[in-house]
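Note to self: keep these together.
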Amino acid sequence: MNVLVLAHGPEITPGWLTEALAEVEADPTIVDLGAGDAIPDGAWDRIVVLGGHMGAYDTAEHPWLDIEKAFLSDQLAADTPLLGVCLGSQLLAEVAGGAAYRAPTTEAGLLTVQPTVTGAADPTLSAIDGPVVVWHHDTFDLPPEAELLATTADYPHAFRVGSALGVQFHPEVTPAMWQDWVAAAGTDELVASGIDPDDMARRISEEAPRLRRQAVRFFSTWLEE
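Structure:
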């Protein structure tokens, strides 16, 4: 199975996804578009689009986003299975006819997402059975043909449209990744959202075994759909 993984900066790594790729014996190709990597030519069995600090709309500052959107639009039209995480979900929402934009508030921490009726019956989404790591300051409007799968009290968090699954939350995040993100972004946004950065780091570390199991189950299920 040839899997393309699109990243958007040095702190954006596959995390727990790496274990799921190994579990299903996938052959991943990981490129960092934020570092200037080009999207390689080839036929892909599946494509994973990870997160990033930029917005899907930040094309003036990051012109490669237009190239990525065109690529994802072509892959969606070709029915290639796509999985978007955070920024990835916002990009998929945009190319499928929705919109991504700055959210009124930042949502971060360990949160429980609530499945819709459709989401509760979705094999991949139902692998999420506990709190997930969240950190986003953008959100999206659903594409016209999308099915909403999960929400929090404030934001949509999962949808399917065509061959694409988008999730706003971060199943891939390990404790080390969270620490790297805090080091890169600083703590102001977390504190302004009412989060104690040290306490949140401790909670994510304590829950790491469960987060790992949940993530590997989620990604493996999607990879084998």
